[in-house]
Write a structure and sequence with these properties.
The complex is a heterodimer of chains A (119) and B (111).
Chain A: E1 5-7, E2 10-13, E3 19-24, E4 31-37, E5 44-50, E6 53-57, E7 64-68, E8 74-78, E9 87-94, E10 100-101, E11 104-105, E12 109-110, E13 114-118
Parallel strand pairs in A: 2-13
Antiparallel strand pairs in A: 1-3, 3-8, 4-5, 4-9, 5-6, 7-8, 9-12, 9-13, 10-11
Chain B: E1 4-7, E2 10-14, E3 19-25, E4 32-38, E5 44-51, E6 56-59, E7 62-67, E8 72-77, E9 86-93, E10 99-101, E11 105-110
Parallel strand pairs in B: 2-11
Antiparallel strand pairs in B: 1-3, 3-8, 4-5, 4-9, 6-7, 7-8, 9-10, 9-11
The chains are: A mainly beta (119), B mainly beta (111).
């Protein structure tokens, strides 16, 4: 079975540009979350979507937006890129928020991430 | 706001020694706690998930304990191998599937 897939794996942008990152969850999972991981830090929560609705938003500016499609895949969009947006963007999937998924209740499964470099 | 701390930040051990990684969290009202492994530049691999009602979970050479009342979890890796070299991340969920992460324990196992 395919795990969480993310694209692109690496990309380079310049300040002021925008970027779209994509994520396909594990088959059967309906919830997708996005995290930002800056070098040397733990991942920080950005968004959570379930059944195409936003279920949570972290402390990120409005330049960050996301959506979930009917097939449960998701996009993360970042506008007006800043140097500080350079990070590994991770997508995680689960069956649904707070409840059963994988080996236990509420387990999240992560993709390999999209490495964004802003010059 | 949940704060997660992992100590030590980095450690090196000779092959064959047991690894002990510590995680502490400030709010004991957690739903579950998950340990992940991350190789350089890669995504997160789930190792163990402990529900708030559980005291420990085991998988092969890995054992994770949870003391919710004191806000602590410990990951034990028995008989470490060079392939265990990675960063280990502790993450706590408060029931809404949002994970609060520590900064990780960077482990090097010396052959």
């Amino acid at each position: 079975d395919a795990g969480v897939t993310q694209s692109p794996t690496h990309l380079i942008k310049t300040r002021g540009q925008h970027v779209t990152l994509r994520c396909s969850p594990i088959s059967g999972h309906k919830s997708v979350s996005w995290y930002q991981q800056v070098l040397g830090q733990g991942p920080q929560f950005i968004f959570q979507y379930y059944e195409k609705e936003e279920r949570g938003r972290g402390n990120f500016p409005d330049r960050f937006s996301a959506r979930q499609f009917p097939n449960y895949s998701s996009e993360l969009n970042v506008n007006a890129l800043l140097l500080g947006d350079s990070a590994l963007y991770l997508c995680a999937s689960s069956f649904k928020p707070g409840l059963a998924g994988g080996r236990g209740t509420g387990e999240l499964f992560f993709g390999e991430g999209s490495r964004l470099t802003v010059l | 706001k949940q704060e997660v701390t992992q100590i030590p930040a980095a450690l090196s051990v000779p092959e064959g020694e047991n690894l002990v990684l510590n995680c502490s969290f400030t709010d004991s009202a957690i739903y579950n706690l998950q340990w992940f492994r991350q190789d350089p530049g890669k995504g997160l691999t789930s190792l163990l998930l402990i529900q708030s009602s559980q005291r420990e979970q085991t998988s092969g050479r890995l054992n994770a304990s949870l003391d919710k009342s004191s806000g602590r979890s410990t990951l034990y890796i028995a008989a470490s191998q060079p392939g265990d070299s990675a960063t280990y991340l502790c993450a706590v969920s408060s029931g809404n599937n949002r994970l609060a992460f520590g900064k990780g324990n960077q482990v090097v196992v010396i052959p």
